[in-house]
Amino acid sequence: MFAHPDDAETMAGGTLLKWAREGHAITLCLITDGDKGSNDPNDTRAAIVERRRAEQTRAAAKLGAEVITLGYEDGTLQPTLALRRDLVRVIRSVRPQVVVANDPTVWFRHGIYINHPDHRAAGQAVVEALYPAVKKASIFPELLAEGHQPHVVEDVWLGPTDEPDTFVDISAIFDDKIALICEHASQFPRAPTRAAFARIAREAGEPRGLAMAEAFRTLRLAANTIRALAGDGSDAG
Ligand SMILES: [Zn+2]
User: Fold this and answer.
1) DSSP designation for 237
2) Ligand 1 centroid to 6 CA: how many Å?
3) Which of 24, 9, 32 is nearest to 97 (CA)?
4) How far does the centroid of ligand 1 lie from the alpha carbon of residue 170, in Å?
5) pTM for the full model?
6) What is the pLDDT of residue 207?
7) Nearest by Cα to 147 from 90, 82, 93, 84
8) Is the per-residue pLDDT at 228 higher than 80?
């Protein structure tokens, strides 16, 4: 569940490809259509949305994923209750085992970039949807009335992150990740994209002795809940 088209592929494309090839169903939920993703003043919002939806459709087809778009405006995203409710509706409807999202605590990247505020807002909204609203029927009762039963997500994978604890080896699948990212052709020209993401993957893999990796901060929500129910601390998930 991400702010923009291309966020899933850039942050977790290798991991998602691996999961898809293992037979897991993937659904991409995109909160905005990336409608500010153009520097051409003659580009209309409608034209940008159409282009980016087409790119996302091609990338999702390559991944074998379904796409859900929520249509929020790019660039000014806020973690509102309305967004939280929309995310809870999607999670209760798709009923995923794992949710992948942005780490809402990350302000800066690689010592030179400011993390896009939409990424923090999206990450915060997803985390706040997961606990407690997704699994508590009395929160957003209108969703229950729509037929969306509570659900327990087992694991949450957050990235990019300054506190990685899970490293996925993407060395063998790196070329396919780049092909996935480059379906977003309006945003990612092939040559510089390959070089930039190779560097990121090498840096992520280094601490764990992997040639190329994607790094995540993970929360084992279901395991935490089971532990809490057994009397080992409060309900953490
Ligand atoms: Zn983004």
Assistant:
1) -
2) 7
3) 24
4) 21
5) 0.93
6) 85
7) 93
8) no
